[in-house]
C-alpha cells in the first residue's frame, strides 16, 4: 500500500485548527475579524484544487506532489518566521502566505487521489478513496492534537513551524516512496 496520505494529512491540518488564533496573535486582528483572512485560504483552496487537477493531468502526480509539499512547508515556516520577526505582523505580509497555503494544500489533493487510484486500481477506486478520506479525517484530529501541544508548549505563533516540520517529513516520505516505486517499476520492466 501507499502510506503517503497518513504522513501528509497532519501536515495540512496542524495550522488550520488554530488559524484564527494565529492570525489574531500575529497581526493583532481580533479573532472575529480573522474570518476575512481565513476566506483567502478557502478561495485559494478552490483555485488550488482546480490548478492541481490541471497540473496532475499535464505533469503527473509525482511532480505535483514534488512541488506542492515543499511549497506548503515553506509557506508554513514563513508564517511563523513573519510572526516572530514582525510584531504585529502586517496583514499584507500574512495574506500572500495564506493564499500560498490554500493553493499548495489543496493543489496536492488531485495528485493524491490520482496516486491512490493508481495504487489500488480503478476497480477498487471507491474503497481506496474512502480509505484516503478516513486517513484525511484522522489527520485532521492528529493535526489538531499536535497543534494543541505546540500551543501549550510554546505559543500559537509556532503553529506554522509545526506544520512545516510535518510537511517536510511528508515530502521526504513521499519522495522516498516515489523512488522506491520507480525502482520496482524498473525491475519489472527489465524482466
Detailed description of the structure:
The relative contact order is 0.21. The chain is elongated and about 60 Å long. The longest helix is centred in the last third of the chain and has 32 residues, at about 160-190. It contains seven helices and no strands. It starts with a helix and ends with a helix. It has about 190 residues and is mostly helical.
Name the descriptors.
191 residues, mainly alpha
Low-confidence stretches: 1-13
Residue fraction in strands: under 5%
Helix content: over 70%
Largest sheet: none
H and E string = HHHHHHH
Total strand count, please?
0
Rounded to the nearest angstrom, the radius of gyration is: 17 Å
Short description:
By secondary structure, this protein is mainly α.
Give the helix/strand layout.
Elements: H1 4-16, H2 19-27, H3 34-59, H4 61-85, H5 91-120, H6 125-153, H7 159-190
